[in-house]
Amino acid sequence: MPEGSKDWTFPKYYSRLQRLSKVILSLSDSNYQAPAIIGFAEIEEARVLDDLIHRTALTKIPYQYIHYESPDRRGIDVALIYRKDVFRLIDSKTLRFHWPEQPDYRSRDMLYAQFEDSLHRSWHFVFCHWPSRYGGQQSSEPKRMAAAKILSGFLDSLELEADELLLIMGDFNDEAHNRSLQYLSCDSCQTPLLNLMEGRTVSKGSHRYKGEWAYLDQILIRPEMQKWTIACEAFAPSFLLEDESKLPGKKPRRAFKGPFFGSGYSDHLPVYIDLIIKTQPLLD
């Protein structure tokens, strides 16, 4: 907003939209097909999504958006856009964050959407932006454990059939080995998940802090879907990176440096998954 600390103006806003569309189009596959579905961790309002798909180079792609206002203290929400020529929307809703230890604490909702593809298969997506590590990873961990329990309980309530597909993705503000993510992938879970970022090399990641890369942004799937997964990485073309000023190596090229708007994109790299969907059942 113009009156906010970032001193937004229309040229800044329009530039931000153009950069975002550039990243999305850069993720197109070898057949120039744009991503079928994209989740966003920090969206202020629905107008941003409407402008993104109608006032940038994305206008030629049949994208539609899903957005709900959440009670986050900073006024940011999660949202998604999807290609209407690939998916038909069946249902969408939010999963409200609640932390029993502090009932008045507010954070982003999680966003759930169910789709059907051209083969009449059911797809379930959940996009997340879990509470931050503000105050330290350990002291803030109970908030993300609360989010993990909300998500796990919701997934169990879906009672998925064997051939339904499930993807969980977003900014979890935890790594795969942390308790919150381990909670989702434990063998005792009614709906166990496979975290595709678990066990990755420390030389790569979606976020860099004090010279160390980490995957705070992750993608989790039903284990049976691994056979259809051909790639799952942080997207790191050169235009999204810049030299670290005081340490060796590169870091994400962020849009703002303090209050100053520059030529960057984000302090996180996007993560993506490429799936080759076969016509045979998910479970052979």
Automatic annotation (TrEMBL):
Please give the organism.
Croceimicrobium hydrocarbonivorans
Q: Which domain of life is it from?
A: Bacteria
Question: What are the top taxonomic ranks of the organism?
Answer: Bacteria, Pseudomonadati, Bacteroidota, Flavobacteriia, Flavobacteriales
Please list the coiled coil stretches.
none
Q: Which GO terms describe its molecular function?
A: catalytic activity
Q: Per its record, how is this protein called by name?
A: Endonuclease/exonuclease/phosphatase domain-containing protein
| Domain Endonuclease/exonuclease/phosphatase stretches | 1-275
Under InterPro entries, the record lists: Endo/exonu/phosph_ase_sf (IPR036691), Endo/exonuclease/phosphatase (IPR005135)
